[in-house]
């Protein structure tokens, strides 16, 4: 039985990353395909279902949009489109908020997740790793005593959810590890230490 258990665990270590990777890719593909209108599906165009057709179509449209808006005419038309959206009250609020987040996260020169940091949370004596996302501004900054930084703390093992905190700069320690290494450390629940080596017990 111990030998069988060892083989079972070894098999799980092989299959779990594969299954989770395929599951995530499946969610991405299905999400992309869900935004394709009915008249552009493979069933409507070719009379039969072609797996991944919607995903490829969305990727192609995104690339062509980026190519179009990279030139002067495309940028001008895009500015006109944004001007129209900014005149619709509810749409303006949602669009501007989403655009600010996407510009910060996806822009090549963006500052999101620029540094991994270590600080005490949720209480003194307990430490966690977060990501520096910037500094508080405006009214919030004027009400905070001293210099603060904005930190995002991802949850384990799902880093897409988490907590946003404003922490005193003096209580935050910047780490030398890369953002990717820190994220891997968090997702693995501390099992995969920075450098690719398993974390050692006490």
Contiguous uncertain segments of 5+ residues: 196-202
Largest sheet: 5 strands, antiparallel
Total beta strand runs: 5
The N- and C-terminal alpha carbons lie at a distance of 29 Å
The proportion of strand residues reads: 5-15%
Mean pLDDT: 82
Radius of gyration: 23 Å
Structure description:
- By secondary structure, the protein is of the alpha+beta class.
- The chain contains seven helices and five strands.
- It has helices at residues 2-34, 42-46, 53-69, 72-85, 89-106, 138-143, 179-187; strands spanning 115-120, 127-134, 148-154, 162-168, 173-174.
- β1 (115-120) and β2 form a beta hairpin.
- α1 packs across α3.
List the helices and strands and how they pair.
Layout: H1 2-34, H2 42-46, H3 53-69, H4 72-85, H5 89-106, E1 115-120, E2 127-134, H6 138-143, E3 148-154, E4 162-168, E5 173-174, H7 179-187
Antiparallel strand pairs: 1-2, 1-5, 2-3, 3-4
């Amino acid at each position: 039985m111990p030998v069988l258990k060892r083989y079972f665990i070894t098999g799980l270590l092989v299959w779990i990353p594969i299954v989770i990777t395929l599951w995530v890719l499946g969610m991405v593909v299905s999400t992309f395909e869900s935004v394709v209108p009915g008249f552009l599906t493979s069933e409507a165009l070719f009379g039969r279902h072609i797996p991944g057709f919607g995903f490829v179509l969305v990727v192609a449209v995104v690339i062509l949009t980026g190519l179009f808006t990279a030139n002067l005419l495309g940028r001008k038309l895009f500015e006109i489109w944004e001007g129209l959206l900014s005149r619709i009250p509810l749409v303006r609020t949602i669009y501007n908020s989403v655009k600010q987040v996407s510009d910060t996260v996806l822009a090549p020169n963006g500052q999101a997740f620029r540094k991994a940091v270590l600080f005490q949370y949720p209480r003194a004596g307990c430490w966690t790793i977060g990501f520096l996302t910037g500094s508080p501004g405006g009214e919030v900054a004027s009400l905070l005593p001293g210099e603060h930084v904005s930190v995002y703390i991802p949850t384990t093992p799902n880093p897409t959810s988490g907590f946003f905190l404003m922490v005193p700069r003096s209580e935050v320690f910047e780490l030398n590890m890369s953002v990717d290494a820190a994220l891997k450390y968090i997702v693995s629940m501390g099992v995969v230490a920075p450098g690719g080596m398993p974390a050692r017990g006490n």
